[in-house]
Amino acid sequence: xxxxxxxxxxxxxxxxxxxxxxxxxxxxxxxxxxxxxxxxxxxxxxxxxxxxxxxxxxxxxxxxxxxxxxxxxxxxxxxxxxxxxxxxxxxxxxxxxxxxxxxxxxxxxxxxxxxxxxxxxxxxxxxxxxxxxxxxxxxxxxxxxxxxxxxxxxxxxxxxxxxxxxxxxxxxxxxxxxxxxxxxxxxxxxxxxxxxxxxxxxxxxxxxxxxxxxxxxxxxxxxxxxxxxxxxxxxxxxxxxxxxxxxxxxxxxxxxxxxxxxxxxxxxxxxxxxxxxxxxxxxxxxxxxxxxxxxxxxxxxxxxxxxxxxxxxxxxxxxxxxxxxxxxxxxxxxxxxxxxxxxxxxxxxxxxxxxxxxxxxxxxxxxxxxxxxxxxxxxx
Length: 380
Prior knowledge:
Number of helices: 13
Radius of gyration: 26 Å
CATH topology of the domain at 1-88: Chorismate Mutase Domain, subunit A
């Protein structure tokens, strides 16, 4: 049998599979309508477990893993189809459509913005990038920024989400899960850490360096070459510069931005001491209200998945089937649970596409919890 003939045989089998899948989904929908009419739950865990066990037995030891993978996806898709009948369309879809219709065409110009830190912090640079004419109110903690936005004290908040060298800011992911805020824009800021001192201080004089923990992680190579120098974490890089200035000490330095040198009257002993030259931090802009501005091409969401084999794989398979590019995946353990995890997703997809809206119907019934965080563009 020639290769072409074998492929022709496969094509015929695939056509049969498609035809059978169509028939199967028709029956699935009939069962969904019956469940809706009789107020029955969509998920029948006992039947699904028995179904997978029976199919594995029929397939035999060699093919059992294949049937497990294939029919787990088929059962998920069948459950989603029934959920659309029993529960109706996902309410998140209507929320997104309403936000698109209600959000003004122009992004705000002069809002009051909450930032963590003090004047000169990298969060302020991100706020200036996103809102060139905005006003800034500073808070000592990330929780304070979220609280200011939730309580309406500030219209927006600016927060660091991840750094290209040091990784994610885990506290922000936890707060996004706990609080009711949405991402409306993001921006990447080039991070250049400089060694700042009071005038007259030399490198050999330094016995202590203060900076934020993320900056410590980003400057490991520089710091390990310094002998007999204590590294002290503080709230943020700008606060470190302010501390050095107010201390008046000649044995202390800050790792901070060049702009903080000018702002606090400090001298720059070393420039760009971070480990990587292309050191960027991604900041998000949050709002209490879901706002989706024209051109939104990135979306973020969080999911708590069933603590079962293959649950994450089946979610990723849905994104792949819809042609949606996943550009970030982050996991965080959930407090007070038995090894359960929250997964954070960034998707590269237009908010206006049918494929994007289809996600929420497909995920209904497939996840333990789904939280949509917003759709937005990134300011370069």
